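User: Please predict the structure of the protein below. I'd like the answer in structure-token form so I can feed it into my own downstream comparison script.

Assistant: Understood. Taking the following sequence of 818 residues as input:
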Amino acid sequence: MKKIALLAPRALFAGFQLLTALYCLMAYLPFTYHQVHVGGLLPWLDEFARLHCWLNLAMLALAFPLLIAPWQRGALARWLAAGFAVYQAALAYLLVAHPVLPNLGNDSLSLGWGLASLLPVAWLAAIDLAAYAGRVQWSERAAGRPAYFAAWRGALFVAALYGGVFFLRRPAGAFQPSEAMALGWSLLLHLLLFLGGFLLLECLAGLAGLFRQPAQVEFALCHLLLAAAVSAVLHNVVWAPLGLTGWAEAAFTAALAAALALANAGAAAFLAAEQPAGDGIAAAAAPITLGLARSWSSGLGLLLGLGLLGGLAAVQAAAFDWNYLVQKLTAAGIWLASFACFYSIGTRRVRASSLGWLAVPLLLLGAYKGIGAAAPAPAPALQSWAGYDASFRLAQQFLTPPRHDEESFFQFLNRNTNIAASVRVDPVSVELAAGLSQAPGPLPNIFIFTIDSLRRDYLSPYNPAVGFTPAIAAFARESTVFENAFTRYGGTGLSEPAIWSGSLLLHKQYVTPFAPMNALEKLIHADQYQAYVSRDPILHSILQPADGDVDLEGATSALAVEFSRSLEVLEQQLDRRPAGGKPVFAYVQPQNLHISTIQRQGATAPADEHYPGFYAPYAWRLKGVDRAFGEFIEFLKARGLYDNSIVVLTADHGDSLGEEGRWGHAYTLFPEIVRIPLLIHLPADLRGKVSSDPAAVAFSTDITPSLYYLLGHRPVQKNPLFGSPLFTETAAERARDPQASYLLASSYGAVYGILKGRQLYVADGVNYGNYRFELNALSAESRPVSAGFQREQDELIRNGIQAVDRFYRFDAQSGGQP
């Protein structure tokens, strides 16, 4: 037990270094830098960075006692321990004198610090190996081991655990036959994965048997296999949604996989020292089970704890997860831990040469391929199951890799996505109207309210079942309600800049200087508007405010913009304006409804607030947004401003609120994310001059071109990448081709879509899949994707991305501008 207790400081030290490395890596990646480091998406992580130098001293206090015993275990261990102590002491002094983490930038230096932070993990593991590996009493290997039984028992355990998670998380209702089929499919996939692992271990054992000390070789090969498994998980699960590609991905993957494998090897050598070891696999598995799985009673206790923790993690992480990232990593950990636990407590042994057992995984693989080809499971049923069962989703990801042509297409998507800050791209001017100059007055005031993550089906103008947005309902009666409005980007990172640009953008955060592409900023400066803007970190990056512009928020965090507070400040500013001053331009993008804001606030609603059929924490907060909006409209009316104002109420994107287990919006383009509300109130004098088509397709990128047209800056340039005026004097000026297709994209990952009429197609280059939806007024129905349809839509996406590349003079193949 003393040895087991000494694993805790090793784990804490390694965990601290790994978190440091990942924080540095997130500074290197454009998306996470803007959202996490600048935007304050994870306040606890900001606090970690602020206190990092002092926390590092505490970790050193934990680590240094671990060097005492190795100091007495030979020259190599002594030299490694001495070097580690000197290096860590010097680094601690540097971090205190010049704190690194709070000052990281979006550059390669952050990547370097991330790689350097992994070194202490590997170094401490090397000390343990030097001190203890030679003291393990490697003995003759047992004739057979329980790998086969550990595999099928582990598969049953994980499939049952996540099946339980599915029934806990899914909406209440009667058990459906399709769910029984999906559960069976899940069991088959888990058996394939675990028995495939069994085959790998049998091959490994056979190779080790060729050496004089097979158990010791087996131990080493197990850690090579562990490093390979970690690399596969990193490549397929972690890096794609974060946008890490190329040489940086290869370097960080190799370093992290090596550090984790070495850490496990060092801990295993420490646990096995001075003890006989005839099973290299069991020795390698000991740290994973904390050395406690020595009997069925202790092993089952561990499995019970593992199940509770895994189920809790799956449920708690679901609503605040990036592309199921935390849930998938948890599932991968449970796979490994359950196999290790069953292996350690296995009592029945099977000879490695038993060809009958070796044939079982191959027979299952044949059954899996045969069933999939002859009678494939209905995609909607499996999609629904995968929405709640992250382990099944991960198993699918590994067992159904993309075809060669799909892989090539997904590589193309990734080359054009999350273009690194280090890639130089010069701005290209977006000119919506030629010869822009000040329009003759008087000009209307402009108020744009872009409510982050606002869903159209939670508003009464779009959904008659909604009764908690009366102010917006009243506003809708005085406005034009666009019934088929969409965002071009499924995340704030690019959606907000695209609203200001009035056009599609290169998938980079951000091309700077942004001013040449900022058509809305050009407009308000040309027409000499007095600007009142809630400048979140994104607007801080893309705006160049003129003298006299007012920052309503002064917020340092993207999630700190609160609607009622912003409107209160705006009202105070408007009351202070001198009579006859400049026209007003106001832009507010509050985050009251952002899923991370809701989660940080506890994801609750008052007990006396009931919203049947809706997600209550979201609906209750929307009720507050509605009240604040209504009070501001009344303020405008009381001050005589409303009848001379253009007021826009919209969203940068929607959000998933539990539909088939989906939450958030980071890496998906599902219908509930791309559909947005768009309501526009015009002054009476403008309403009499222009008309619109509320039933026609509209985009958030149409807002800026519409303002150009309404203020008299005509003709608005026609370009497939630009938005179009929604209000015109003639129908011909705003007519869109009913057969046209429109490119949509995630703001943060290689996920792209094609919208054509009521049909939405999505190519997911993060999870390597595709989807097709038929859009109805308040819902969407999943449709199968035929091979021919997929090829056609993928080509439209490719053409759309290449059109964006050409406009911004970007060559994805060479990684820069020609």
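That's the full token string. Residues 445-486+518-738 form a domain with the Alkaline Phosphatase, subunit A fold (CATH 3.40.720.10).
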